[in-house]
Amino acid sequence: MPLFLALPDGSHVPLEKPVVSVGSDSACDVVLREPGVKPSHALLFRDARGWTVSAASKGCELRVRNKRVELSPLAPGESFSVGRCTLTLISSEAASPVAGSVPEGAPGGRLVAVLTGFASRLMVQRPTVELLDEVMRGLAEVADADVGFLVSAEGTRRHVLCSTGPVPEAAVVDSLVDQVVASGAPVLVSDVAADAALAGAPSVVALRLTSALVLPLRGGTAPLSAVYLGRRVGRPPFSPRELEEAMALSSLAALLLATSRELMELRTRVDSLTQRIEAATFEGIIGESPSMRALYRQVERLGPTSLHVLIQGETGTGKEEVAKALHRRSGRRGRLVAINCAALPESLIERELFGHVKGAFSGAGTDRPGLVEAADGGTLFLDEIGDMPLSLQSRLLRVVQEREVTRLGENHPRKVDMRVVSATHRSLEALVAEGRFRGDLRYRLDEVRVEVPPLRERGDDVLLIAHHVLSREGRRARGFTQKATEALLGHPFPGNVRELVSRVRRAAILASGELIGPEDLELGGDTAPLVPLEEAREAFVQRYVREAIARSGGSKKDAAQALGIGLRSIFRYLGEDS
Ligand SMILES: Nc1ncnc2c1ncn2[C@@H]1O[C@H](COP(=O)(O)OP(=O)(O)OP(=O)(O)O)[C@@H](O)[C@H]1O
To answer: Looking at ligand 1, which residue's alpha carbon is closest to its atom 10?
Structure first.
């Protein structure tokens, strides 16, 4: 909301600049030619906490709430007096500014040039110490100072962080610096000779200054450090205008420093995550949860054996990645050859898998080996094995059992040495029970089983995978907000890793900021509505009973026994009549 300063003559001055000077001198922003008002009497300045009024020097009488003060915060509606004039801070949007009361706020060409160069230098990622040096030099440049240094004001010890030249110790342990650190307000000493108290300040003496400008450089709301700028004999004193420009620059610098610090922290977090991801990667699979570590151990153990492996897991959990890992760990010289049984029509699967000779069917112009032969010496990966057409299963059984394949249109078998790894998100036992899968083939393919856990059971692995995808795909975005992290950890991911990868990929490409939020991931607002507990419990029980039946090879009786309930209860839970 725009704020104004209401003057004794009833006019309103808009507070558009970070520092507004009040005094009888015509160089001031608010000129009050009244008895008791000194040439430079008070300064109004804005920082992260709002507006503050400060006496320009010790002899300037300033009153707030009828008490004499040197410095006081001002809320909208509050007044202060300089000499006999009372001025009020007002937030009325109806206040009509008096044109020309405040000199045009547009900074001069020099300030614009310095600001632009300064901002672009600061935006380059560098250690904070180097950025502080840039800030101090930029301020000295904009104020055209002979001397400039930055004093750390954190804790009680003061020390120079950077400077334009040598700084005597006396200038650091200084009353002006203390005053700025304690008040958070800038101090302008336009003419040392005119103020005996200031003329004796250790810094002024040690640096042989005629004019000094000390500004707070804030990080967040606490004063972080003080910027000391000075001019020597022969130079004009600092003006309120230069104070104003330096304050504008220091506010910008504080903002850039805070951003730079956040980025450095983010980079440190990303570096440590990158190291964690490296340590948590097994054959390209990312995860350090106990269930994934157990899976890696199993792959390591089974890899070199000749056992046929069935990989079971929900869709998108990474079954194909596990198949690749098993092949890499097998030490087999041949290739990994994959076929997705759900993606092809029956006739094509047959030709692809077993191959054919010339003339075996219309369009078979040449002899062609199938994928089984291509996998000789390697691994045949049968993805979505549950969708293998029943009519082809006996042919596949012969391949697995006899280790030989006969091309379509041929009648002499060829020997093959391959290991079969199959994957499914369905229960082969249930398919066998339903008569849609051969029991003997299932036993052959399922010599050992590897279960890939759903993503929602892998804890922080979600974050490791998300960061990995972001570092691979991210353009501007480098991390996730706290809310996005929580949303990722709370989302059930029915599509598992595939869903996570695609959400992060999309967000990484489309996000405009440094950090990805829950809305970029399309998480948060679109989760399923909560249902009453009783309803959720019933849905869970029904799902669990169905799973138990599937795992008992389709036998409701066995499932009832395993669950410790009667057969009637099974029917009741399923909502069927017994
Ligand atoms: N642990 C992991 N770390 C990193 N990326 C992974 C991980 N697991 C899976 N992915 C990636 O997720 C995607 C899906 O994985 P994959 O295709 O192996 O799943 P699937 O279980 O075989 O899926 P489907 O059931 O649909 O066949 C792929 O892009 C894969 O690279």
So the answer is: 318
